Amino acid sequence: MPNHRPADAPGQPPEPAPAGPEASPYWRVRRVVLGYALFASLWILLSDRLVNLLFQDTSLVMFASSMKGLVFVLITSGLLLATLNRAVRKLVAKTDELRTSEQKFSNIFHLSPDAIDLSRLRDGAILECNGSFEKLYGFGRAEVLGHSSLPADLGIWVDPADRTRHGDRLRTEGVVLGHEAVMRRKDGSVFVALLSSALLEYRGELCNLTLARDITAQKGVEEALRESNQRLELATASGSLGIWDRPRRGGAEIWNDRMWELYGLAPQPVPPSYAAWLASIVHPDDREATDAAIRNALAGTQPYDLEFRVVHPDGTIHHIKSNAQMIRDPQGAVVRLIGVNRDRTRKVEAEAEQRRLQTELMHAEKLDSIGSLAGGVAHDMNNVLAAIMGMASALRQACPEAEPRAAALDTIIRACTRGRDVVKSLLTFARKDLEAVGPLDLNSLAEEMVKLLRYTTLSRVQVRTDFQEPLALIEGDAGALNHALINLCVNAVDAMPEGGTLDLATRQAPGGAVEISIRDSGKGMGPELVRRSIEPFFTTKAMGKGTGLGLAMVYGTVKAHKGTIEIRSEAGQGTEVVLGFPPLAGAAAVQAPPPPRPAGPMAPIRILLVDDDELIRLSVGPMLAALGHQVETAESGQEALDRLQAGPGADLVILDMNMPGLNGAQTLARLLAIRPDQRVLMATGYSDDSIAPLLQDRPNVSSLRKPFSLDELRDKLADPGFPAPGAGG
Ligand code: ADP
Ligand code: MG
Fold first, then answer.
1. How does pLDDT run across 5-34, given as a tens digit for each residue?
2. CA-to-CA distance for 1 and 340, rounded, in angstroms?
């Protein structure tokens, strides 16, 4: 068996032999022989002198001389015996020790679950191998001994270069630990082996003791683990999942990198404590609820399924969803929590935006339906008012100034005028089209507005302006827009009873829209008020002060201009209303000339009044008669056509737009077919959508807004833009 100590088992380099001469047994023999030679020489040289010195008596000297040889032998024998005794005892002890050690090594060698072989370094011949070696490589002991692992022999190395590398390292370093190599069995199958080798001397030859262990399965597990880790990493990264693992007591919590990202933090070696997390990361408003929910989850009263907000260091707020699994010990106590966190901010924001859009849509729909309702009511009201106004005007005409009835009639007419304004506002709110549309400069409109404001509110309110020049033109109805601006300014001034500032500004918005902003420093509105303020008849003002129609009208006008309205306000913080209009490409502003005032009374004419509403026929008829005209009435379009065809005709036909059967437009077309030069006034109630095309290229056709007063009718008939034709019929 090899000459080594059990402690030199593979894994430990063998101890080199001690260097001193004392250790060598030959030196001990030399020491004994040298001692003997020295003693013997001294004995020969000095023994006679010693005898002569000790004994004077000749007979005694003779006796001592004959005995000294015997004494020498006795002394040297004694010494030799003692020396040999010691050496033999030592040798026996050593041999025993060696035998146990060899036994131990032999046991290790043969019982080891690892494959062990001992091969000669010189030629690689395997001198010894254990049972595990036979099992691992599939060779019988007889097939192995005397053979080598060379490719041409046993060929157990799949890559011969690997074998060479291993051998080289062993020669230079004396020992090789944990060398991984792919090895081949007798049947050709391969496996991954973990090899450890050491050089040692055996029977006077340098040998290589190698231990081999099959780690294929372990490698597979490692590989699978690495792959599954990679997959998990990929899944958590692509799902943007933060993963955390928190032991209940003892041990630090573990976060993946994504967890830090979720909180807007740079990864640190150790996550913050629960208390620090709650106090510094969770949104202040969510701390209490989150803490309670986590405690409930730990107590088992509810699942660990939380949503809370966190505040990033940059101040942004993020919505986090957190789910966790609780790992329990056999007694049911939670020992560990493993959780997944996700950022739901985008989803939450999208949901909020959707809710907002939905509310906005509902609001717009509500305004639309109120609009059509208001439009219908206003249309009917209009006719009622027209009847009252017509009758009252006619009666007033016939009434001498001094009579008390005259004042009463004037009051009726004034009341009707006010009623008409309300109706007009409602019609504006419900309107879909505009009357006089043209290119328009919002700046000059706003400047006019400022002049008016300076006259009326100078003492209380400071008006400031910031008009962007140049400003793109828009396409609009100057009258309607002016009215809208007045409404907004009146609201602003009303909101500042103690005074304040009113800012008017125009600008070209980044998207291209032309914007005008009316901002006051008044009492402002809460969100609910902002939402309701546009509704018609919604007012917070005292009876008689507000109608609640101002913003409704503005809304109607803006919509008719395909514009936008935004009300920004907060209670106590003032209000800003921003109107935006699409710009008009490539047109110059045209200032509408002021309408010329009519002059003088007019000659009596024959009028045919066509209206399905009896109230109108009964009121407008006398009104026209009061002006000195001759009036006939028809209650439908067909009747009017029949009458014009059969009778002498009329100088003027006043034609209602809105009639059952043939409506105004249809009647007009047929009428003009019979009498192309017929002068016609279209009486319109609605802010009429369809009136403009009817007037196009027809100088003898004009329109008149219902209800109209006597004066308005007179003005219209005298309008030079509506010239009297040469012949009436
Ligand atoms: P009205 O002015 O007749 O009340 P509006 O439609 O113009 O009707 O306004 C409706 C309501 O909206 C007002 O009663 C007021 O409460 C509120 N409001 C409108 N504009 C402002 C403003 N600039 N500041 C504060 N509140 C306003
Ligand atoms: Mg108002």
1. 433 333 333 344 444 445 566 787 788 888
2. 62
The rounded Å distance from CA 527 to ligand 1 centre is 13
pLDDT, one tens digit per residue, over 613-629 is 887 787 777 777 777 78
Range of lowest pLDDT (106-110, 463-467, 614-618): 614-618
550 alpha carbon – ligand 2 mean position (Å)? 4
CA of 475 to the centre of ligand 2 (A): 25
| CA end-to-end span of the chain | 148
Q: How far is the CA of 566 from the centre of ligand 2 (A)?
A: 16
What tokens were used for 345?
Answer: 């901010």
Residue 566 pLDDT: 93
Q: Which ligand lies nearest to the CA atom of residue 520 in the structure? A: 1
Q: Is 65 part of any domain?
A: yes
Q: Is residue 388 part of a domain?
A: no
Q: How confident is the model at residue 432 (pLDDT cuts 50, 70, 90)?
A: low
Contact 302, 292 (CB under 8 A): no
Mutational test site, ligand 1, from 418, 487, 520, 539, max ligand atoms within 8 Å of CB: 539
pLDDT > 80? residue 723:
no
- Percent pLDDT > 90 in the chain is 34
Q: Same domain, yes or no, for 126 and 60?
A: no
| Nearest ligand by distance to the CA of 545 | 1
**How many CA atoms lie less than 13 Å away from 520 in the CB half-sphere?**
24
**Number of domains present in the structure of the chain:** 5
Q: Which of 548, 581, 345, 553 is nearest to 475 (CA)?
A: 581
Looking up residue 657, the CATH number of its domain turns out to be 3.40.50.2300
| Residue 29: domain span | 21-109
Q: Is pLDDT above 70 for 455?
A: no
What single-letter amino acid sits at 580? G
Contact 606, 651 (CB under 8 A): yes
Per residue in 568-587, pLDDT (tens digit) is 999 999 999 999 999 987 54
- Which of 551, 554, 565, 569 has most ligand 1 atoms within 8 Å of CB, for mutation? 551
